[in-house]
Design goal:
Length: about 250
């Protein structure tokens, strides 16, 4: 590991403990109108929720259409319970919200804004049990360990369980560049390398290498890549067709 990377990793504790990245600042002055999630985040006086500022409008964009509906959402990583409370306020009382965390202390938040179950995101049986209890899942938000092999283990189990038209969101993917999280720049096994393979998989009809990610094969409608966040749109993908219409 280069000395620069080791210094970064050593300084990284959790979201924003890196020199050069603003951390825990006040609400930035925004030239545009704020979004609903931004308002809920900045006005939060309940349990701590910890998010990078640039994620907030992304949540609005993807979660906004599910507001007020009985959406089933699973968040990996409960921590201090603040994000579950935020999703409850944003999505409304009809949402079926579950959070999972490996830390037994998070059980204290069970039954507050959401149901909380204790276990590892890398445990397939645990994940299947939670989704069965939820009655299925429409949205997964992975804000758990940020270790690439854990992210992949969760995706392998959970993505096939996401409903048609649902979303699979993974955040804090900057950790994919850090060795202690199983990452590294273009390092095989880093979850961002998996995402790059998904781009090839989406285009599998135009090359002869086939699809390499079984969990998403044939059911990946779109991949949205943001700084440190990826949003996968689950849909059954039909072979592309094209037509010519109009006068020659
Ligand atoms: C980044 S925090 C979650 C923050 C929370 N979502 C928020 O926005 O405030 C990450 C959480 O993932 C949990 N975690 C770490 N490894 C895990 C694993 N293997 N399975 C499930 N949760 C894990 C940690 O205990 C920690 O509470």
């Amino acid at each position: 590991m280069s000395s620069v990377v080791s210094k970064l990793v050593a300084r990284y504790r959790y979201k924003g403990g890196i020199a050069g990245f603003a951390h825990d600042g006040d609400r930035p002055a925004s030239p545009s109108a704020s979004t609903a999630v931004e308002d809920l985040f900045w006005e939060n006086e309940g349990p701590v929720v910890h998010k990078w500022h640039h994620y907030l409008p992304i949540y609005d964009r993807y979660l906004g259409p599910w507001r007020g509906r009985p959406v089933r959402m699973l968040e990996i990583g409960v921590s201090r319970g603040g994000s579950m409370a935020l999703w409850r306020k944003f999505l409304g009382p009809e949402a079926v919200l579950f959070g999972i965390d490996i830390d037994p202390a998070c059980a204290a938040f069970d039954g507050q804004a959401a149901q909380v179950r204790i276990g590892s995101q890398a445990d397939p049986e645990f994940l299947r049990k939670v989704v069965a209890e939820m009655g299925g899942v429409d949205i997964v938000l992975d804000d758990g360990s940020h270790v690439s092999r854990h992210i992949r283990a969760s995706l392998d189990v959970l993505y096939p369980l996401v409903s048609e038209g649902g979303l699979y969101m993974i955040e804090d993917l900057h950790a994919c560049y850090w060795r202690s999280y199983g990452g590294g720049y273009r390092r095989p096994g880093s979850f961002l390398e998996t995402v790059k393979t998904m781009i090839d998989d989406i285009h599998h009809r135009y090359h002869d290498q086939g699809e390499h990610i079984p969990a998403t094969a044939g059911h990946l409608g779109a991949i949205h890549v943001y700084d440190s966040m990826v949003v996968l749109e689950k849909m059954t993908v039909s072979p592309p067709r094209h037509s010519r219409r109009g006068r020659e």
